[in-house]
Amino acid sequence: MNSEEVLEELLNVELQINEVQAEINVLLERQDNLYQRKSELQSLLELCKETEDSVSQGTGTSTNSENWSGSFKWDSEADDIKLNIFGISSYRANQREIVNAVMSGRDVLVIMAAGGGKSLCYQLPALLYDGIALVVSPLLSLIQDQVMGLAALGISASMLTSATSKEDEKFIYKNLEKGEGSMKILYVTPEKISKSKRFMSKLEKCYHAGRLSLIAIDEAHCCSQWGHDFRPDYKNLGILKTQFPNAPVIALTATATQRVQNDLVEMLRIPKYVKFVSTVNRPNLFYMVREKSSVSKVVIDQIAEFIQESYPNNESGIIYCFSRKECEQVAKELRVRGISADHYHADMDSVAREKVHMRWSNSRLQVIVGTVAFGMGINKPDVRFVIHHSLSKSMETYYQESGRAGRDGLPSECLLYYRPGDVPRQSSMVFYENSGLENLYGIVQYCQSRRQCRRSVFFRHFAEPLKDCNGMCDLCAVASEVKEVDVCSHARVIISMLQDVQKSNQKMTMLQLVDKLKAKHNDLVSDLRKEEIEQLIVQLLLDRVLKEEFQHTAYATNAYVSIGPLARQVLQGKKVVKIEISGKQKVTGVKSTRKSAAPSGLECKLDKLRKELASMDGGIFPHSVLSTQQISVLSAQKPTSLDQLETMIGKVKAEKYGDRILEEIDKWSIGQNPNASEEEQEEDENRTPKRPKTINTHVVIESSDEEA
Ligand SMILES: Nc1ncnc2c1ncn2[C@@H]1O[C@H](COP(=O)(O)OP(=O)(O)OP(=O)(O)O)[C@@H](O)[C@H]1O
Ligand SMILES: [Mg+2]
């Protein structure tokens, strides 16, 4: 061998070592994820055993043997506050048990889906206890919404943030230090705890005087860097338990992975916590994935048609887009099509952003078109649809984002537009994140699936026993012919093409690969549409037969497709690759019309009235006056006296708005039947059927997890 040959072989060996190292890295990452999954499955197994042993409570589970559903001495006072102050007639799953655990002085971890009603779990004990409850919440906008909502209920709540005036600060400090004033709940950002010594010293005085009733940490997943919204200042909140050991801590989050839970109880220093886990299931949400056209105008036309057909009464919605530019374009195109829409992203100044958010929160703007920047601060309960114009970056993010629909428990829809061609766009953004690609491929698998119930993917992801979907996803509601196509021969051709490319030191993007396949092997792929070839390549990525590689240019990061760790197995015939292709759709058992149940005349009137009352009441949110659910109840039951009204919306609201509400109902009833005598009207009312809740094509079982 001459030196040139040796050098060539040396380079070749080095190349192979690098390849092996890359495969080892992939395998190590996979092993890490499998260990993680193993621990989740072990917890799941225990949970399943508990459920089988019938120790579960409603749809949620408390991982402790104490009976939190029994009777407690504060029961009747709690019931009174719940109805007459909060206007809530019955507890949702786990709420009562959590209140009881907090009232018993225990540290509590609450994992409850978005919109599940976590706020009540600390606000109710805050009113039951003497003294002041401290609530840590990550965002100013969330805090402002909460304080405003509480003020509308006549509850004295304050906030201490960077935006608090000197005068308000003085009032708050007086309350803390001297117990002067009526403040019951104090909201702060985590920065106050970690950065303001003055605040901490006042809080210590409050605690030592026995006036710090409880500490609530809302959005507690922000403590963990494995969570999707890690906030460094949340890491310092452990100081609260150290300084105030006797004040019960209640940590609340909608995110349920085991890793995040472990992290946050450690950081908050609450080892003896009682855990309440409610299901991640959102039975009122209908999940669907639609094929996304490569022509952007077609996608916008479809979205506009969906909104106009299904939500003609200006019902609120969110559209998530990939980029800021896309947000602006989509919002503009929707406006051209007559839909009231505006964009929201991080490039806008905060005043403009807040303005859009407020118009939407007050239901003066129907659709907000946002990037992920439109996130945690969304408190609007009556969002009827969340559309993803592009993929989310993980199942978890998708769960969070789509979960902003239907927080009031009423039927709502989550629609995702998927096209395999969007995968490289998203992967080039996330590949450098911890498990970024792994997470992305999770949601891609959700989209590529043509058989598996969409809901079951969520259950699996959050390590929860499967539950019935009740036909509330596209794959369960509509049976379509799904063909499973063996694509091993396609895979072998693709691998050999990529081997050639690699030999000549070239790289190939997914789109280039599709074009080349069509040009050189049309006989092989002639039975597949372009989108299906893309789907095939993405499936090979998911199956690790191929892998993505990334390279930076001056302007962007490009994603290329190359040979993955399991390619050899396909070449050797040891691994079979299949894709699922949809045939014709058959509608089964559900109506094929896509019309939402129009609100009744009285519901429209009450909706208008709540907006009017809200603006008269210092510009609070209309849903703080009456929730959509309360409007449904009122128009079904049509109360005729303040006493009746009180049983439906509670004393505080009845006293504040009762006369106007009754007047409106009365006016409407007379308008409906002007000639009827009072008795006849009464009879008629008794006959009025409750409007069934329908969601476009399906009848929905309302709030199956409500306690009686
Ligand atoms: N028992 C109940 N009955 C009826 N409505 C309720 C009940 N509990 C809470 N709600 C309502 O449900 C909506 C969502 O409640 P809340 O804001 O507490 O949700 P959350 O669990 O904190 O959700 P997120 O994770 O999105 O912050 C609110 O409008 C609230 O008034
Ligand atoms: Mg909340």
From TrEMBL:
Family stated for the protein in its record: Belongs to the helicase family. RecQ subfamily.
Keyword flag Plastid: no
InterPro entries for this protein: DEAD/DEAH_box_helicase_dom (IPR011545), DNA_helicase_ATP-dep_RecQ (IPR004589), Helicase_ATP-bd (IPR014001), Helicase_C-like (IPR001650), HRDC-like_sf (IPR010997), HRDC_dom (IPR002121), HRDC_dom_sf (IPR044876), P-loop_NTPase (IPR027417)
Domain Helicase ATP-binding as annotated: residue spans: 99-274
UniProt-listed Pfam families: DEAD, Helicase_C, HRDC, RecQ_Zn_bind, RQC
Principal EC category: isomerase
Domain of life of the native organism: Eukaryota
Residues covered by region (Disordered): 668-708
Cofactor: Mg(2+)
Helicase C-terminal domain span: 299-451
Coiled-coil parts of chain: 3-37
Entry-linked PROSITE patterns: HELICASE_ATP_BIND_1, HELICASE_CTER, HRDC
NCBIfam families for this protein: recQ_fam
A Gene Ontology cellular-component term: cytoplasm
Protein name: ATP-dependent DNA helicase
